[in-house]
Amino acid sequence: MFKEQIGKHSSKVKNVVERGAVKKFAEAIGDLHPIYFDEETGQKSRYKRNIAPPTFPRVLDYGVIEDLHLPNKGLIHGEQTFHYKRPLFVGEEINCYSQVKNYTEKKGNFGEMGFLVVENVGEDAAGNVIFNATSTVIISEAVRKVLAK
Amino acid sequence: MSTITHLQVGELLKDVMLEPVSRIALIKYAGASGDFNPIHTIDDEAAKAGLPGIIAHGMWTMGNLAKLFTEYYEEGFIQDYSIRFRNMVFLNDVITLKGILKEKQGNILHFDVVALNQDEKEVLKGDVVYHLY
Fold first, then answer.
1. pLDDT digits over B42-75, tens only?
2. Which among A25, A51, A80 has the least Cβ separation from residue B83?
3. Which of A11, A134, A136, B81 has the fewest CB atoms within 10 Å, counting from its CB?
4. CB pairs under 8 A between A and B
């Protein structure tokens, strides 16, 4: 069902690792270390600035992959990975896009399940990749039936 | 001062026990992450989805689990963080976060990480590759 989408990607979107967003995110995951939001701690650190928590890239805008229509209900987040070249810095500008990496189907206990792998990528201004994050989303038979209509 | 550099294979990071999962915590995560799927915040929507109650965002728990490493930010960074979501986290669950050093190769540390609920059931399981400077 999503096989023909493999390889499709969004256009790059410019994002800023916004100070307020990082603070709000750190608070929401109860990670109140000052390295994320206290300027002095950031300046004294090896990075000379604040950094963002490792799962922060979830909040960034990756644009829209054309023709990839996912329901907002009934999806199961099965797996998630992050790979970093270095931590994300507060205040930096990055270009983000996402791409359909894979789609497979398997027969399981709950009928035919679809496994959709979407990769989110963040690059610096020079085009160097800073992080890639992959999400594996499980699409149940019931949800796929709704989509097929 | 605590340090991750001198941790030996087989040693554990300090466990972290979270406060019981509250609705307000999930509402805050929805706001901070932009994930407003109502099964995480609204009882009726969770029931309609066939769930016994609202469940935490998987990414909320994954975000929490990463804080096992935060205090070591001067020594290195999380290079790889991979998680499988194994079981759902419900309101009032008490989650404990654990990490163990499995392997050391030069400046690369391999950890197994897990989040357990109050019944010792794995809700999240994965691994972290920590890159020392």
1. 999 999 988 999 999 999 999 999 999 999 999 9
2. A80
3. A11
4. 102
